[in-house]
Specification:
It is a single chain. The protein is of the alpha+beta class. It has one domain: Beta Polymerase, domain 2 (2-Layer Sandwich). It contains four helices and five strands, in the order αβαβαβαββ. It has helices spanning 3-17, 26-33, 53-63, 71-78, and strands at 22-25, 41-46, 65-66, 80-84, 90-95. It has a five-stranded mixed β-sheet with strand order 1-2-5-4-3. Helix 1 crosses helix 3 (53-63). The longest helix is centred in the N-terminal third of the chain and has 15 residues, at 3-17. The relative contact order is 0.22.
Length: 96
């Protein structure tokens, strides 16, 4: 299993452990449903209401390095939480 596949698995485990609805999007999803293309990152969208954003950050911190210095403020401004796997794979978690 390569680093990208490991990152997808770690993200799925972290979100499913806390029953957070999610969907893989971007290049990873395209590998399954569309025309395969090279991708070096993981994009996912999650369904989490704003009051639960601090808990989401804490859950993801257990499995990933959260990239913004002030993640809650960054999330409020962008609705994206960039994290990094242990292998250095970038994951953009987008809130819907």
């Amino acid at each position: 299993m390569n680093a990208l596949e490991q990152a997808v698995g770690a993200l799925a485990r972290a979100l499913e452990e806390h029953r957070i609805p999610y969907m893989l999007i971007g290049g990873i999803a395209n590998l399954v449903w569309g025309e395969p293309r090279a991708t070096l990152d993981v994009d996912a969208t999650v369904l989490v209401e704003e009051p639960a954003w601090p808990a989401l950050i804490q859950h993801l911190r257990r499995a990933f390095r959260v990239l913004p210095k002030r993640p809650l403020e960054f999330l409020r401004e962008t609705h994206v939480l960039p994290v990094e796997s242990n292998a250095g794979v970038r994951i953009d978690v987008m809130l819907t």
